[in-house]
Amino acid sequence: MAVQKPLTPAAMDALIAPNVGMTGGLMRALHALQAQAGHIDGAAIPRLAAAFNLTKAEVKGVVSFYDDFRDAPTGRHVIRICQAEACQAVGARALTNHALDRLNIALGGTTPDGRITVEAVYCLGLCATGPALMADGQLKGRMDAAGFDRLAGVQEAEA
Amino acid sequence: MTRIYIPLDSSAVALGADDVAAEVARLKPDATIVRTGSRGMAWLEPLVEIETPEGRVAYGPVTPADVPGVLDGSATALCHGITDDVPFLKHQERLTFVRCGIVDPLSLADYEATGGLKGLKNALAMAPEAITDAIMESGLRGRGGAAFPAGIKWRTVMQAVADRKYIVCNADEGDSGTFADRMIMEGDPFHLIEGMVIAGLATGATKGFVYLRSEYPVAQRVFAGALKVAYEAGLLGADVLGSGKAFDLDLFMGAGAYICGEETSLLESLEGKRGQVRAKPPLPALEGLDGKPTLVNNVLSLCAVPTILAEGAAFYRDYGMGRSTGTKPFQLAGNIARGGLVEKAFGVTLRELVMDFGGGTRSGRPIKAAQVGGPLGAYLPEHLFDTPMDYESFTAIGAGVGHGGIVLFDDTADMAAQVKYAFDFCAHESCGKCTPCRIGAVRGAEVMDRIIADERRHENIELLTDLLEVMEDGSLCAMGGMTPVPVRSVLRHFADDLHDVKKGA
Known about the structure:
Shape of chain A: elongated
CATH architecture of the largest domain in chain A: 3-Layer(aba) Sandwich
Structural class of chain A: alpha+beta
Helix content of chain A: 40-55%
Oligomer: heterodimer
Strand order of the largest sheet of chain A: 2-1-3-4
CATH class of the largest domain in chain B: Alpha Beta
Strand order of the largest sheet of chain B: 2-1-3-4-5
Largest sheet of chain A: 4 strands, mixed
Helix content of chain B: 40-55%
Largest sheet of chain B: 5 strands, mixed
Strand content of chain A: 5-15%
Number of strands of chain A: 4
CATH topology of the largest domain in chain B: Rossmann fold
Number of helices of chain B: 21
Distance between the termini of chain A: 21 Å
Structural class of chain B: alpha/beta
Number of domains of chain B: 4
Largest interface: A-B, 41 and 64 residues
Radius of gyration of chain A: 18 Å
């Protein structure tokens, strides 16, 4: 289950403060916020800007540069399917198409019930045992259509 | 009391190693289960090894249902005999991966018992000049892909005068088909720590960072654990092994940007900024992190260092061929029967790796291509597979060894789709700083869409060739500068997939 907890301003500040003055502090603070809240809430931007003596635009620029940092909540579960060459060579494109057809969403999209988000990831380092994916932080190798359906609880959801 | 070894490596865990370990613990509560790194035989993962008087006996791939048969020895179909005698392992030349998969990654005692810290202890008795001379004499070249002589970089940082210097380890292993950095950080993390401390002694840096990609949660957990052990044991901190010399090391997580594997982009990211490439000069060796002299080396470059200091520069240099000295951890990936990690001296041929070690395609279909060196590497047809894996031989065929990843494709691969992907990937990952990369990648993808749709195919292939020249000559870094490499390789070797009639471009 992906974490989706709204943070109070005080909770945000408590996560930001220990990273001020550290090398790469803004990146560390963003990781800390996202680990707790599941995404970077817009309300955190001015607090980050003030803490690191940056403009809000600079903070937003960093958030938007990195694939990991999101500015909106995901579904309750996040499945990231590897799209890179080693997984392509063993059927990642077909697996991805199957997943998106099954859930009737586009890559990067979330099911209308807010249950599952499917997104691309470019390499999980499981290149000899693909197709690979990461489901709520858990790594899975040699994945196939049936394995995806079990993982995504597709049958269960349709019943 | 039986000792049973089960990997904690990502590739094993992704195939159920944790469930297997739980089942072993349930059925044989008196056994000692040691969670190791991976031996690198990915097709056998999860690999379970049982200690016997003759050596460890390997079973794999093991599911929880197989565990009773593995424990009583009746699962003969899964048994591969003594692990060290499996041909895939027996014919390797492991220096960097010498203990990966064998030891408990977080046991410093295991590390020392298998030759660890010998290089560091030698280095502590040497002057910085002598350490950098050893790296220079070993012929070590950057293992991340650029193959720059490591000794020159080390000497530049050593000679730089500054109040602070840094060692930065590039563990942003983003190339598809590569997983050696991940494996060593999961299976033998003290090896990297030792290499970095030695680099600190040589250059006068007292602070190091490991920049690790966020897609590697297991490596993050194991390496963070190793840092804690290393501090407690005095391997890191104010007084390294009682020498009076200081070295601090910190783990820093990336956030899903391939470009941060480029060293200047990595440094920007490590400063907490957008990972945008810097123009060089100034070289990071002179003005790197926070403007201070910074040694940026790949995980595997730093992991070659303990061996060089322990056994001598000549020992390491005697492996390999020509100007490609030492060993290289190659990674067999994609559609391959026996995928995994093969460490060999430079000079082994691509065919030996893909066929003798790898066993050809996993699907059993004919081979179409091997992409060597990640997304910026060439697609090579089988008639070039006798090329020796060394930097110069690969340059001569318009390819590169890169980080040593080899992705095999069978005859169902559509090379036009692979070219389209090369541009899409570049468009997605470009940092946006220079125009040829930022715009060129998008234009390339558009041109490929037209070629695939058979719209004025020949004119568009000409346009594509022109675009490649602009990207190669005009891009600030290898992202835009080398995206043309896979594209050109397809134009040269797989033209039929792009042209409808004539061959060659």
